[in-house]
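job 3f2a | input accepted
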Amino acid sequence: MSYKVGANYCKDFHITRGLIESFCSVTGDNNPLHADDQYAKSMSFDKIIAPGLLLGGLIASVIGNDFPGSGTIYISQNLKFRQPAYVDETISVRVKIIEIKRNNWLVLNTECVNQSNKIILTGEAVVVNNAIK
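job 3f2a | predicted structure (133 res):
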């Protein structure tokens, strides 16, 4: 597959309690912000929030499965959390090629936005994929 600077991809994910519970179970993240509405409210959130790295995992899912896709290897990823992602929100993961380096390395702009188009997180990834032409 051939890629160019400016090429982009977007995929939506629905954040459910089950998804949050599964992620927290696998990672051992027992922060009550992710499980207890009353606790989340006491910490000035409307309801439970998704763990930040769950969102990072959704970005990794897009990069590894969809764009650039199979065979992609992460070199680095940074994330800047701008606001929480709440349970029952739909999060759009957006990935855009901002630079193509030699040896099939890509620099990607990564971002998550909610259904109200509010930016939840921004970041940048460097990946390599030898299937890229």
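job 3f2a | The first strand starts at residue 8 and ends at 14.
job 3f2a | closed
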